[in-house]
Amino acid sequence: MHNGRMRYHDLVLEPARRGDAPVLAAMSRDLIEAGLGWEYREDRLARLIASADHVAIVARERRGVAGFAVMQFGDEHAHLVLLAVQPDRQRQGIAVRLAGWLLQSALVAGSASIHVELREANVAARALYERLGFAETMRLDGYYRGRETAVRMIRVLRPPGATPPAWIPPPRSDARH
Ligand SMILES: CC(C)(COP(=O)(O)OP(=O)(O)OC[C@H]1O[C@@H](n2cnc3c(N)ncnc32)[C@H](O)[C@@H]1OP(=O)(O)O)[C@@H](O)C(=O)NCCC(=O)NCCS
User: Fold this and answer.
1) pLDDT by residue (tens digit) across 100-145?
2) Does 129 participate in catalysis according to the annotation?
3) Are 115 and 76 in contact (CB under 8 A)?
4) What would be the CATH architecture of the domain defined by 6-156?
5) At what angle are helices 94-109 and 123-131 packed, to 10 degrees?
6) Distance from the Cα of residue 140 to its chain's centroid
7) Helix/strand/coil for 165
């Protein structure tokens, strides 16, 4: 960590900005939603970037955005909504680093688990999520626009429902015993 950012050569992981919305929307269209129709357009990405219950991060380098990820935080569970890396920057560990940031955020937020859906044929994403400790929970027929099956995977972070122990204030240092 350096000034709140992670640095690796000239690639920086940082929160997405409003101005990134067009690029992230295009990446979603071409890399995530290809062949399905385009739902994550610029205005939707802008809303996700501004949303208080989502975290959107980018892997930025001098020439532009190399990858990005968006996670939604609920009361008990987190949902990995979008994740993509530019084709010429794939297999260089960028997705692992983006997902690692969000996994750490979910841990700190106290999430019990992280959920993700991926297209059944997406072997790259499946291999990535398995490597990150996700396991398949179910298949959802027609999940994608009624056309394609989704695989839902989950990464458990803590036992569901278990609440952290109540905080007990330390004794006052000037207390007399
Ligand atoms: C899936 C995706 C995000 C992976 O990004 P990436 O930066 O290339 O992934 P990493 O380099 O961090 O890969 C980590 C590991 O995941 C697995 N993996 C990643 N891509 C893979 C592929 N094409 N085939 C097999 N395994 C793959 C490997 O185990 C890899 O480790 P290795 O390179 O040491 O073998 C990227 O391929 C992508 O953007 N695909 C299109 C969009 C998409 O499918 N998003 C996810 C679903 S929403």
Assistant:
1) 999 999 999 999 999 999 999 999 999 999 999 999 999 999 998 8
2) yes
3) no
4) 3-Layer(aba) Sandwich (3.40)
5) 50
6) 20
7) coil
Q: Find the farthest-apart pair of alpha carbons in the chain and give their distance in angstroms, rounded.
A: 72
What are 84's two structure tokens? 């993509």
Of 69, 52, 95, 74, the closest CA to residue 16 belongs to 69
Q: Which two tokens stand for residue 50?
A: 């501004």
Return the best residue to mutate from 27, 81, 85, 123 for the ligand 1 pocket (most ligand atoms within 8 A of CB): 85
Task: With beta carbons less than 8 A apart as the criterion, state whether 101 and 83 touch.
Answer: no
Write out residues with Cβ below 6 Å of ligand 1: 31-32, 82-85, 90-96, 118, 122-125, 127-128, 131
- Residue 78: C-alpha distances to residues 8, 23, 31, 109 (Å): 27, 24, 22, 9
Cα distances (angstroms) measured from residue 151 to each of 9, 40, 82, 103 = 35, 20, 15, 19
Q: Where are the domains of the chain?
A: 6-156
CA distances for 54 relative to 15, 80, 101, 102, 128, angstroms: 11, 10, 13, 10, 22
**Helix locations, the chain, DSSP H:** 21-27, 42-50, 94-109, 123-131
pLDDT digit string, tens, across residues 159-172: 877 666 678 888 88
